[in-house]
Amino acid sequence: MQTILKAIGNTPLIKLNTPTNTSLFAKLEYLNPGGSVKDRSALYLIEHAEQNGLLKPGGTIIDASSGNQGIATAMIGAIKGYKVIITMSEKSSAEKLHTIKAYGAQVVICPSTPFITDPENYHAQAVALQKKIPNSFMPNQYFNPLNAQGHYLSLGPEIWNQTAGKVTHFFAGAGTGGTISGVGRFLKEKNPKVSILAVDSDTSYRSTNGNPKPYKVEGMGIDWDSPVLDHSVIDEFVPVSDDNALAMLKTLARDHGLLVGPSSGAVAHAAFEHAKKCDKNAVIAMIFGDSGRAYLSKNFY
Description:
There is one protein chain. By secondary structure, the chain is an alpha/beta fold. The protein is about 35% helix and about 15% strand. The strands form two sheets. It has a six-stranded mixed β-sheet. Helix 3 links the parallel strand 4 and strand 5.
């Protein structure tokens, strides 16, 4: 039986018209059925758990999310018949919250805390819930290395094939580290010379050497040490400010017809700036992880 889960992946890779001599491509991950790149990792983590007996019929899936992984998990849970509970930071957009609820999942809103070790943090609250709810499973996207494997098996091969193996640079936002690590590992295995660039918030835990400050861009920012993030495949971390990320959103929408989320604005800013330094043979691929429709209430556009 075919379900909407079969529609995850095989998203378009489109070329952007830019003033540089390089070829700049965007992978439109917001065209996944759940609206983001996180459909890939959520499906892989859930089906891996099913296959290994960690998630049983009638069970409950619990995870922490800034929104997109939660949406994907709620969608998949609805199709497969699981109860889903998602913990979210209060800084997540109202659109994401309402979308998760629309799939029938329960949402627990948690205070926005600078450190994941805070017991009020949305990840800590998900862990606590999973411990006390019988027959429950936590994909644990922030600390489960299998997060990256979902992108290694699907997103990496798609980018390689869609660029006919000519990709020279790959940009993606780094939050959990799953996308950049999984795709980075695949591309490095195909061609060790491909440059893998992880886009980070300039006020994240990593960027500030352990002294993070709040930032507006959701779903991006390395705010803890995690086994998901594979440093061995990353050539460079590129910090981007809120101002530069949000300014790029208007450029993408009004000049390119691409209404994308704030993390995509950060990725595009980093890629556009890097393209200025590249020669005409460079083929840059970047991830547009979700749609701007999920953030319209924040007036970024």
